[in-house]
Design brief:
It is built from nine helices and nine strands. The chain has 328 residues and is an alpha+beta fold. It has two domains: 176 residues, Gyrase A, domain 2; 119 residues, tRNA modification GTPase MnmE domain 2 (Four Helix Bundle (Hemerythrin (Met), subunit A)). The strands form two sheets. Strands 5-6-7-8-4-3-9 form a seven-stranded mixed sheet. Helix 1 packs antiparallel against helix 7, helix 5 runs antiparallel to helix 6 and helix 7 packs antiparallel against helix 8. The termini are far apart. Its main location: plastid. This is TrmE-type G domain-containing protein. It is found in: Plastid, Chloroplast. One of its GO terms (molecular function) is identical protein binding.
Length: 328
């Protein structure tokens, strides 16, 4: 009985529900096309058909957050289909660039612009009938019927995709001109230009990623060292999330046993206080270790500023060169 307030305090302190903050949006950061003001206003699709899996529900404060805005109000964030360039632009041209579509009408919009080449050396184009995770070769055409680029279309149907929505990636030639022309064709076909990080945001809202994994996506993209990339990748694979789930499970088990003893103490074996205290101390150590690694993670992301100070010709440059070679 005396331990009951202790366990309730643990549960409340470490696992109390938190509401989404509007300032979270910058956390979901991905490479997106810049200077896209040339794109016309996207057309609104009539009666979009949602491809979300109703079983994959993310509950927060008793509400399904997949269909809630960042401010807790209903919006059409998930019901629209978005498109964006997901490979870097603005630098030297590359051989391949990718335009991604995600949403309930991704396949429909892609079929409007993508025309697969006929097999068996027949001339002309055919209607695209995609198979999930099967690559098709063809061309992208604009609304006037002009060929924009030769591409590879990679459909990834829900829920087997990054966002758990229907996703189509158009692998184009990597020049900025080709990528923008393909993106323009998708926008004119009915897609909406994605906000920075909106693909990861949708993955979070659809339950594909939890908040810690979504944050590590941004850290992996912006990492500047191998150690930072490894730490972010471990977070994406669920290292921190699995630890939190384990702590939550242990707390619930302890609390369940204590609650049961309030009514059925006579029918249960004697309570082993030493064993319970050992579990509590073990969970406390895990939490303390997690807090310590938070500071280490900040150092990996920001790095350390070091000054090599000494008299002339004492080996400062040699030391710096040796460190640089070891880092390589």
């Amino acid at each position: 009985m005396a331990l009951l307030p202790v366990f309730r305090t643990i549960i409340t302190h470490f696992f109390k529900p938190k509401t989404l903050n509007p300032s979270l949006s910058p956390l979901f950061h991905e490479p997106a096309a810049k200077n896209l003001s040339f794109l016309s206003k996207p057309k609104t699709l009539s009666k979009p058909h949602s491809s979300l899996n109703s079983k994959a529900t993310l509950l927060l404060n008793g509400q399904d957050q997949r269909f809630m805005g960042l401010n807790g109000t209903d919006d059409k964030l998930i019901s629209t289909t978005i498109a964006a360039i997901v490979t870097s632009v603005g630098g030297p041209p590359s051989s391949v660039g990718i335009v991604r579509l995600s949403g309930p009408s991704a396949v429909e919009i892609a079929a409007r612009v993508f025309k697969p080449m006929r097999k068996k050396k027949k001339k002309g184009f055919c209607v695209w009938k995609p198979t999930s995770h099967v690559v098709d070769y063809g061309v992208v055409m604009d609304h006037q019927g002009n060929v924009v680029d030769e591409v590879l279309a990679v459909p990834m149907l829900a829920p087997r995709s990054y966002t758990r929505e229907d996703v189509v990636e158009l692998q184009c030639h990597g020049t900025e001109v080709c990528l923008r022309r393909v993106l323009r064709a998708c926008i004119e076909a009915g897609a909406r230009l994605a906000e920075p990080g909106e693909f990861t945001l949708r993955a979070f809202l659809n339950g594909r990623l939890d908040l810690s994994q979504a944050e590590n996506v941004e850290k992996l993209i912006s990492s500047k060292s191998t150690a930072a990339a490894d730490a972010a990748l471990a977070g994406i694979q669920g290292g921190f999330a699995s630890m939190v789930k384990s702590l939550r499970t242990q707390c619930i088990e302890l609390l369940t046993e204590i609650e049961a003893r309030l009514d059925f103490d006579d029918e249960m074996p004697p309570l082993d206080l030493n064993l319970i205290m050992e579990k509590i101390h073990s969970m406390s150590e895990n939490v303390e270790n997690a807090l310590k690694t938070a500071n280490y993670d900040k150092l990996l992301q920001s790095g350390l500023q070091i000054a090599i100070v000494g008299r002339p010709n004492v080996g400062k440059s040699s030391l710096l060169n040796a460190w640089s070679k070891r880092a390589e």
